Amino acid sequence: MNPNKFARNIFEEEEGFSLLEMLITLAIFGILMVTTTSLLVINLTVSRKVKARTYAREETAFMLNVLKKDIRNAEPGLTVSEGGNELRVTVVDPAYEDTSHNYVWSIDGNRIERKEDPKVSYNTPSDIEFSDLVFDSLYCDENNCVIKITVQAWTIGMPGDKGEGCDSENKQCIKKEVAVSTRNFEFE
Amino acid sequence: MKIKKLNKLIISQKALGLVEALISLAVVATGMVIITSLSLKTLKVVRKNELQDIAVQIGVEAMDFMKQPASIRTVGASGDYQGYYYVNLSDEPYGIVKTSDLNEIDSCSPSSNYHVSTITETDVCQQVYVGEDPDGSNRKFFIKTIIVWETVGSDEHEKKVTSGIRQGKFKSY
Predict the structure, then answer these.
(1) A173-182: per-residue pLDDT in tens?
(2) ipTM value greater than 0.85
(3) Cβ separation of B13 and A16 shorter than 8 Å?
């Protein structure tokens, strides 16, 4: 085909879209746009959910680390009531050996706190709801105790999803169970 | 002459036909398919990263438990501590329970003794290995934690193994 003729065909002799052509084009384009947009929305939602869960998991892990440290450094005589929501622990101050701290770990409203009467020395952040803090004594002997800690946290303002071992499918949640021992009270 | 040409371009030029429109749509559609597949890949990577993060945390906690300064209670070991164990924190007798397995786990299902959690349709299993006691003093052991996670309905699984040394005793229950 003569290139000049082809160019003339395209630029001069072709006719515009008919209404039907426009509708078909728009319909195909519309379907593609809806699919892509919905995928992007799903992507964004999942990212937000994962971010919220990761944040809750990190804060829970941080709280558990502080709690574990207290249990590991506890003085002899640590008692844990089965399924209790409170743990009283006496810890020797590493800086001043003749000073000890009496910490009470409990859940106050939606936040877990470590209280050394009357002041609160540690608090979980307000943007995570903690609904459970349970202490169980797994086994204790004269030398040490192993304590199971169960904690459940909910992220706020996030769409529902089946959480990590949680009962509800309507909220984002994480549940953790960890076992931690005291040190050996009597070294062998 | 120039004005005449310009007039021709603006006034007389005709639009594209259906074939050209469909070709351009195909180009746009290909672009969109690429974007969509990228988006899906991103989702998969985000999910994979989250599961890896959880597995690492479980592995670290298991290693922390195995390195505790207190003696660890073993169930079913009868003095021979070398072998594969699962951690039992849910019912008596608590402690690590020795199994007859001779190898590391490579899969995970809810019915497995090693199963510890199901996280958004992904099963997570945790296995603990206690190695030999080199000097027979019951004080120093080579230990390993093996975390395997597997998504329900998928044959794909991932594994994370962490090794360490335990300086402390085991006790038989």
Answers:
(1) 888 888 888 8
(2) no
(3) no
Asked if A130 and A122 count as a contact pair (C-beta separation under 8 A), the reply is no
pTM beyond 0.80, yes or no? no
Query: Considering only residues 131 to 160 of chain B, which have any Cβ-Cβ distance to chain A shorter than 8 Å?
Result: none
B6 Cβ under 8 Å from any chain A Cβ: no
Select the residue of A39, A53, A179 nearest B89 (Cβ to Cβ).
A179
**What's the per-residue H, E or C state across chain A?**
CCHHHHHHHHHHHCCCCCHHHHHHHHHHHHHHHHHHHHHHHHHHHHHHHHHHHHHHHHHHHHHHHHHHHHHHCECCCCCCCCCECCEEEEEECCCCCCCEEEEEEEEECCEEEEEECCEEEEECCCCEEEEEEEEEEEEECCCCEEEEEEEEEEECCCCCCCCECCCCCCCCEEEEEEEEECCCCCCC
pLDDT digits (tens, 9 = 90+) for B70-87: 888 899 888 889 999 999
How many whole angstroms separate alpha carbon A92 and alpha carbon B10? Answer: 88
Please name the member of B25, B61, B71 whose beta carbon is closest to the beta carbon of A178: B61
Assigned token pair, A174: 């994480």
* R_g of chain A, CA atoms, integer Å: 30
Q: Is B87 on the interface with A (CB under 8 A)?
A: yes
List, run by run, the mean pLDDT of 10-residue segments along chain B (173 residues). 62 66 83 86 87 88 88 86 91 89 91 86 91 81 93 83 89 83
Q: Kindly list the residues from chain B whose CB atom is less than 8 angstroms away from the CB atom of residue A46.
A: 43, 46-47
